Amino acid sequence: MPKRAPAIDLQLNLTFCSGLPRHRQLYSALKRAVLDGQFRSGNRLPSTRSLARTLGISRTTVLDAFEQLSAEGYLEGKVGSGTRVACCIPGNPERASQRLSGRLARSAPRVSQRAHLPIEEDLSFLQTSARPLRPGQPESSLFPRTLWSRLAAKHWRRANRDPEHIDSLGYRPLRKAIADYLARIRGVRCEPDQVLIVGGAQQALYLCAYTLLDPGESVWMEDPGYPRARRAFLGAGLKVVPVPVDAEGINVAVGRKSHPSPRLVFVTPSFQCPLGSMMSLARRFELLQMAKEQASWILEDDYFHEYRYGAAPVACLQSIDETGRVIYIGNFSKSVAPSLRIGYLVLPPGLVESFQRARSTISRQPPGVEQAILAEFITEGHLEWFIKMSLRVYSDRRDVLAETIRKYGEQNLEISPSGVGMYLVAWLKQRIDDRDAALAAAAHGVDAIPLSAFCSRPLRRKGLVLGYSGYEPERIQLAARRVCEVLSAIKT
Fold first, then answer.
1. pLDDT tens digit sequence for 112-133
2. What is the rounded CA–CA span in Å between residue 178 and residue 192?
């Protein structure tokens, strides 16, 4: 009769802690020993009695650990032969793991072509947390937290009793509030059932690309223009055609010569991103005529429309569209709070059903309670009050930034004339590369964005995009003065 193989000598060196049951700690240690190759397939483990005695724990603890490992397939037991490491465990997991790690180190994992999108511009020199003068940062202290908390408590109490939260277009009271607000403030012509709630402007951009175009079809983009829109279109497999921008907006005539039949045109007519200019009325009609002739869609991103200093906001492009070619994008990340990832599309009636189907592949509907809070925030007039208050603060901060640059950096920088938004463009007068300027500013604690980060083609004139909205006047003065000093020290 053959002798049984001797049990392996367990060298676990366990130090039991109080945070986890002992049988779970023993289970984890034995499992790791098997996976690391310390215990091989077919090795016999000591008896539960001897292991309990060796470790100074109860036999019940060992039995519980063995039972869990057996249930998961790591151990197997037979009457008369004890408990062994399961035969299905690879012969040498440790060496196999090392070989796998070596292969992964030598070759990148296979992913889709869309995941290999080139980085538009390396801005890794910017800090994780925003520093002056990074653009697009609202002033968080202005946000009415007490009011928002009261509305949140109210709507969470009745969240499960409100059937409108499951509307696939979005919370209907919010869609109605948006339609009414846009009609009054922006001249948008729409019904609530033309409004589709989305998870921010970026989701809206990708949803439009996915729904309206097939891979390989073309989209005109302003150049310079919004980098994340470019990435959304490239991610959808579209051909992005950069079209230059002049003082009147996107140059339709140049676009017609380079690529006369775009399927989609992305524009920011009320506040051109990033230059801040407004598209002229003549250029708007020219763009609408081109879209009519070519059966093209126009995607109007109306960001920053609320923040216009010294004049009422101009009516949007959608308000003069007579052929139903304009899709309007808006969001509340800048006007309310960055953490409120709620945006919306205003769609021509014939597109609503198609967009509903497309959005269902991403999510059934956006989060309901946040929509309910925002709906009441708008209908009770809090949004307009909040924007007016923010506008006064931002206007003063813009003046501080402009005056500081004129005082300390007039020889190197020229302020753009824009009276809109939360940032401005400062053109470089000397032959200084804007990326070199941004890197030097970052080294001195200031976040400036090179204008070239917004461009597909080389710029004739370089500049810096400087934000002011989220920073107190004293910090703006200090940061702007540092930028001016840094530029004076750069040799051209």
1. 666 666 655 667 667 777 899 9
2. 8
Q: Which CATH architecture has domain 144-380?
A: 3-Layer(aba) Sandwich (3.40)
Residue 394 structure tokens: 């931002």
Superfamily of domain 386-489: Aspartate Aminotransferase, domain 1 (3.90.1150.10)
Secondary structure of residue 195 in the 3-state scheme: strand
Residue pointed to by tokens 């928002």? 148
- Can you spell out the DSSP letters for 230-292? HHHHHHTT-EEEEEEEETTEE-HHHHHHH-S--SEEEE--SS-TTT-----HHHHHHHHHHHH
The C-alpha atoms of residue 335 and residue 136 are separated, in whole angstroms, by: 11
CB 181 within 8 A of CB 324: no
Give the other-Cβ count within 10 Å of 402's Cβ.
Answer: 18
Out of 9-23, 86-100, 162-176, give the one with best mean pLDDT.
162-176
Of 298, 343, 294, nearest to 317 by C-alpha is 298
Bridge partner residues of 422 (DSSP): none
pLDDT surpassing 80 at residue 109: no
Find, among 2, 24, 5, 10, the residue nearest to 82 by Cα: 5
Domain covering 1-110: architecture: Orthogonal Bundle (1.10)
Write the single-letter amino acid at 47.
S
pLDDT value, residue 93: 47
Helix (H) or strand (E) holding 488: helix 473-489
Q: What share of the chain is helix, strand, coil (3-state, %, to 5)?
A: 45, 15, 40
Judge if the upstream peptide bond of residue 26 is cis by omega within 30 degrees of 0. no
Q: What is the pLDDT of residue 116?
A: 64
- Report which of 368, 371, 227 is spatially closest to residue 301, judged by C-alpha positions: 227
Q: How far apart are CA 199 and CA 362, in angstroms?
A: 10
pLDDT at position 227, please? Answer: 93
| Residue from 82, 96, 20 nearest 51 by CA | 82
Residue 490 reports pLDDT greater than 90: no
Q: List residues bridging with 75 in a β-sheet.
A: 85
Q: Where are the domains of the chain?
A: 1-110, 144-380, 386-489
Sign of the alpha-carbon torsion through 114, 357, 351, 191 = negative
CA end-to-end distance (rounded Å), the chain: 92
Q: Which of 371, 374, 370 is nearest to 383 (CA)?
A: 374
